[in-house]
Amino acid sequence: MFRxxxxxxAAAALAAVFISSQSALAAEPSRLETFVAPSGDEGYFALxxxxxxxxxxxxxxxxxxxxxxxxxxxxxxxxxxKEALTxxxxxxxxxxxxxLWAVDLAAIPLTENFVAASSAEMTDALARLDRRVPLGTxxxxxxxxxxxxxxxxxxxxxxxxxxxxxxxGLSPTNLVTSDRLSHFADRLTAMRVPFSCLAIGxxxxxxxxxxxxxTTGGAVFTDDAETNAASAGQQLADMAHGxxxxxxxxxxxxxxxSIYYRAARPxxxxxxxxxxxxxxxxxxxxxxVSVRLAGSLAGKSVSLAWNIVATPSSxxxxxxxxxxEAANHDHGVSLPTAGDRALEQxxxxxxxxxxxxxxxxxxxxxxxxxxxxxxxxxxxTKVSPGDQDALILRRAAEKSKQVRQASFAQTGSAVAPPxxxxxxxxxxxxxxxxxxxxxxxxxxxxxxxxxxxxALNEARANMGSDPATVVxxxxxxxxxxxxxxxxxxxxxxxLADQIEAVLRMANHQALIQGEKELERQQIIAEGxxxxxxxxxxxxxxxxxxxxxxxxxxLMDEERFRDAEAIADIAEELEPxxxxxRGAELTAxxxxxxxxxxxxxxxxxxxxxxxxxxxxxSHIPTADExxxxxxxxxxxxxxxxxxxxxxxxxxxSNNPNEQKIMSELENKTEIDFAEQPLSDVIDYLKNRHEIxxxxxxxxxxxxxxxxxxxxxxxxxxxxxxxxxxxxxxELDLTYVIRNEVxxxxxxxxxxxxxxxRVYPVGDLVVPIRNPMMMMGGxxxxx
Length: 781
Known about the structure:
By secondary structure, the chain is an alpha+beta fold. 50% of the residues lie in helices and 16% in strands. It has 24 helices and 22 strands. Strands 3, 4, 5, 6, 7, 8 and 9 form a seven-stranded mixed sheet that branches. It has a four-stranded antiparallel sheet with strand order 1-2-13-11, with helices on one face. Strands 12-10-14-15 form a four-stranded antiparallel sheet, with no helix packed on it. The chain is elongated. Mean pLDDT is 80; it is low at 1-9, 18-25, 413-430 and 765-781.
């Protein structure tokens, strides 16, 4: 929304501009439209430029998406906007990244940074977006600042940037003035960020959205009932991926002056860039106009040149004079002419303004104000020189002025003499025009009265069921009555009073219904809260009942410690429920009682067994025959002879297995961060030049894959210890089997047995008289 810096007619036309939903069509060849006023000394042009070079290959984009969540984006508009956003994300390539923001009174980031469109982070962001209630208005200044703050520094090599806004562009609380618009346009252009829009909502600020797209090299796509979500999403994706030529220098043939505060508007390949300006009226339009532009495309400098033959001056292009005058006030910053269709819409609206001026002139003529009628006719012909109604009205006003001047010259009075019954022939056409105007006024007033009467009857009938719709309808009808210039002021005032009376009743009824609806929603919310609390209490009680059932089972199994822990958990869930604290104390008391009984039994058995040993020790033993021990030299010889039986392996190891056992004792070094297990094994295999294999079947049974990430840094330890540290975290181990070092599960390793022989002679030497050793601590072999 802009402050008024252009003439009233131009402002009214520009404010109503909208962009066609077919904005993403391929651009046509460059074109130069002209208009030269018959009595003027200056011409006006509209230059539509299309790049005449090939587009570079597409690259991934970092796109910031600004989704409008204001109160105007509710109901069907919210649903359609959300569907378009989903389709847009699906249309992006896997390499594209998106930063999603929700914008209303403030801009709220829903993703921490740029993420893939199909990532879990984006899924969470869309869920948070669904939970946001459409409230408040939109602050477009904060929206544009969010788009700029999303990017830092220069874009990454091989990537481009884009901004996409989904909303209506209305910013009633913080206006985007021309100065602010040029500031944001400069920032976005410097960062190489084209700003494209999906215009959706009950009312759309076409001027602001079109101006943003026009100054930053973006595009605008307007939602309508005939456009499906998939088409809208694909259009947004195509606009975001469109290449833009960023001008740095621009020139035209001598005499042609474009109105723009920078070199030129950015150029896109999917639409023509529109520049307006002026040229000398005496210029030869048959000669080609030379246009030169230098800029950058995909980070590289480019130069473009055109030689365009201008179209002959036409009254259809008369609106260019008003368009150029409007652009002069802010150097063309606020022009919404983002493409040919927008320029055509501006032409239609300016011509419609000429028709409105002609209608006002008719009304002035009806009331006898021929001076105003003449001025309005002049203004209408200035906008549209070929408007027949304006030309006829102007001739009629001039004739009336001549008649009044002649009457004044004869009578000396400013009052015109009575018109004769049969007007002179030269004035017949003008009299017929006035009669026709009066008849049209009477017919129109009759239609207007009927329409108002029907609207009021329908409003009274629907006021009790849908007062909000009635209020909106009556406001539109009131605006229509007040702007109905064909009706007399008395009729307009009478009808407006009738509408305002019913409108006050509808507003009062809407207020009452709003209070009832608010009360109903509050009751529903309180009921849902109570139901949620009851559900939570029921689930909590059900969980406590399950815990106490488990408690009883553990008590029956005499697992008193586990039962005590279960009772403690149940008491934490419901601390004031009777019996839970008693159950915990009961389990503890019964458990300690059982333990004490067991300890008492063990003490009794130990006392009896010790007493028995004492009795056995009282048995005397004879010292015949005496125990004779060999000399120390004999014991030393026996020890030396038995060393060969210290460890005897029945299995013979081949050279490969011997090498593996030797390498296990050698030093190794590893440094891995989130590397697959298979890569770690391959590294160790190559470093130690031994064969290491994964037991895939055993690893699969244990639920471990070869791609399990390993993070470990180890230096200056043996390969054996390194393998233990790495495999212990995965509950794995290794074995030497079939000439390879096999990585397997511990369960599988336990089934792989090897035969070993150890000397156990000392364990099996028979004791000939054990009673002798019990009696006196002595014995013999």
